[in-house]
Amino acid sequence: MALLRTTSPHLHGPQTTQHVMQQLLLATVPGLIALSWHFGWGSLINIVIASCTALACEATIVSLRKRPAWFYLRDCSALVTAVLIGLALPPLAPWWVVVVATTFAIVIAKHLYGGMGYNPFNPAMVGYVVVLVSFPVEMTTWPVAQSMLPDGLSTPGLWESIQVVFQFSGSAVDSYSSAYHSIDAYTAATPLDSFKHNNGLLAEQFYDQDAWFVGGRWAGAGWEWVNLGFLTGGCYLLYQRIFTWHAPVAMLSALSIMAWLNFDGGSSVSNGSASMHLLSGATMLGAFFIVTDPVTSAVSHTGRLIYGALIGVLIFVIRAWGNYPDAVAFAVLLMNFAAPFIDYYTLPRTYGHEKYGLGKKASTSQQSLDKD
Amino acid sequence: MFDNSFPTAAVQAPQYTAKIMQEFTVILISTILVNNFVLAQFLGLCPFMGVSNKLETAIGMASATTFVLTLAAISSYLVNTWILMPLGLTYLKTIAFILVIAVVVQFTKMFIEKTSPLLYRVLGVFLPLITTNCAVLGVALQNTAKSRSFMESGLYGFGAALGFSLVLILFSAMRERLTVADIPMPFQGAAIGMITAGLAALAFMGFAGLV
User: Fold this and answer.
1) Is residue A283 part of a domain?
2) Fewer CB within 10 Å: N-end or C-end of chain B?
3) Number of domains in chain A
4) Per residue in A113-151, pLDDT tens?
5) Model pTM?
């Protein structure tokens, strides 16, 4: 009887890259629904623009490198980057902000390093930070939540949103768009930003005055639902075993512990309660969709715990004491930079060998095996 | 006649110490993270690109540079305050500092050669090259330009060196990984190193405003 001989590995996981990426796209839906419900059509338009740009850039670069374009487009990784950028950018950001962010993410952060699997920095976060640093005004103009608008105003409809995003120059549209950008009723600094500049109010007073916190108790109207949406999506991905729990849990716990240690009960220089830090800004989007990126994070379980925890600490440090109101993108990029170093010192034990310690060469463990 | 609330030295001492400690922490955070010499002021890029191919070499280089930078910052302060300023020769400070740095580097070289011949061989040509590390001269010149005190100068040099070491070590671990990446032909080697340094600088911009 002839036995079929195959080389290792003999156990195959059913998960292909394409499957993982599709699950990830599916898991963004609850957060996207919450975003669209509270802030209008902007995020959806962002995602459409970003996806078209990402696919075009990916196809161009891959064909420049004389590789089969369809093979690379099929794995949906460019789409995931595009969707994350679309979710992270402010709804109703001008179209060119989205295009610049996506182009930078795909071309420079991903393909200059050889494409998917080689990029040391998370492409979506690189794109986001580039436009955040370059166009601060556009990036800090965030539409207010539906519930905060005064009577008689509602979030712009689909056609109006498209006109605002593409900055059409019709006379009627012009007046609308300039009104949109100038009237405070439509746009505001994000809850984290306004909490940071609370004009010396006690936290309780601030909660009673600020429109964001009148509409939503924990983290600002709309924002808590957006974050809960991403949390739901993240739990679905955990259930599907798309990633392990280590990095997101470490990040969220580190952030809560830092916030809890530094919270003074709500004075005027308070840094915000843990519930606000957990449910505001991009915390949940970061924890489940960015920090879990298998390419740019640390590899081993220990490594991922360290990686996630340091991201949580950095997010709090920059949010509380830095210039930027939200810090997920910066914290992730900083730890992406440190991830190879973490990997270097958290190598897991190879089966049949002693633990590879600091300064211990592989040959010494081989010798001790021989002695046994 | 005398205001009784005037603080005596005994009362003042702990507050004074706390203030000094706070000041020193600010200097360290500023030099290591916010105004990182490599990623924010773009000084010391030659060893940053040159010695970052292997992590172990980078760690050796980082510790040697830390030693040299701290010592050079202190000795250039001494030379400036006790020799150049009394003689009115401050216009010679660039040349004088280069001489000081070269002496410190030579001293470090002899020290490492005797204590760790292996590290000496690994570092090889890079050890004398610390002389040309612009961060070393940069720290000395900035210290005199901002007329920092003795302790501040030393701490500033130490902080700058720690920031340089942090970035160099992290960067070298990343570059080891980049050697196996499928990078397009025109970007291989130093080019992708520069792009990575740029992206890291982008990440370090997040620290703005910490101090």
Assistant:
1) yes
2) N
3) 1
4) 988 889 999 999 999 999 999 998 888 878 777 777 666
5) 0.87
